[in-house]
Specification:
With about 170 residues, the chain is an alpha+beta fold. The protein has six helices and six strands; from the N terminus they run ααβααββββαβα. A hairpin with a 5-residue loop joins strand 4 and strand 5.
Length: about 170
C-alpha cells in the first residue's frame, strides 16, 4: 500500500467511530479513506470497483481484495450498508443510518441515490419491533431490519410533458 495519503480528510462522526471500536476495527489509512468516500456523499452508493477507482484517484494504492474485505467489515459493523444490485450482479455500499430511528429508504434504480423517508419512521419501527419479537420467539436473534423501496427518483424520471407529447 502506498504511503501517500489521500487528498481529503473527513471527520468520522462519534456514532460511526463507536461502531468501529465495538467491532474492533482499527482506524487505518485505508479505513479512514474508504469511510471518507461515503461521508463525502452520504446519499451515494458505490460498487467495489467504483470505490477502488475513487481511492486510487485520491492517491491510495490499496489491494482490491483488501478493499473487498474492508467494505464487508464496515458493513458487518454497521458503518456501511450493503445492497444487492441485481442488474449488475454486484454489491453496492452506502453509508449506514447513524440515528436510532428506523426510516425506510427509497433507492433510485437508475442513479442509485438513496433518500430517507423520515415520515415512515414510526410505523416502520413498530413493524420492525414486531418482526424482531417474532424472530426471538422462534429462537433467532435479529440484529437489524432494513426497509428499502426501489423505483425511479424524480430527477431520473422523463419530463412529464415530454412523455405526453410523444403519445
Amino acid at each position: 500500500m502506498s504511503t501517500r495519503s489521500p487528498r481529503e480528510s473527513v471527520p468520522v462522526p462519534a456514532e460511526l467511530q463507536a461502531r468501529l471500536e465495538r467491532a474492533g476495527l482499527r482506524r487505518t489509512l485505508a479505513t479512514r479513506a474508504a469511510l471518507g468516500l461515503f461521508l463525502n456523499h452520504p446519499q451515494g452508493m458505490l460498487t467495489h470497483a467504483q470505490a477502488l477507482s475513487a481511492l486510487q484517484v485520491r492517491g491510495l494504492d490499496i489491494n482490491r481484495v483488501t478493499l473487498y474485505r474492508l467494505l464487508d467489515r464496515l458493513a458487518a459493523c454497521g458503518a456501511l450498508q450493503r445492497h444487492a444490485d441485481d442488474d449488475a450482479r454486484t454489491w453496492r455500499y452506502s453509508l449506514a443510518d447513524l440515528d436510532d430511528g428506523l426510516a425506510p429508504r427509497f433507492e433510485c434504480d437508475a442513479c442509485h441515490r438513496q433518500f430517507r423517508v423520515a415520515e415512515g419512521s414510526a410505523p416502520t419501527q413498530a413493524a420492525a419491533t414486531d418482526l424482531l419479537r417474532t424472530l426471538a420467539q422462534l429462537g433467532h436473534q435479529g440484529v437489524r431490519v432494513d426497509v428499502a423501496i426501489h423505483g425511479t427518483c424524480a430527477g431520473c424520471l422523463p419530463a412529464r410533458g415530454a412523455s405526453k407529447s410523444q403519445g
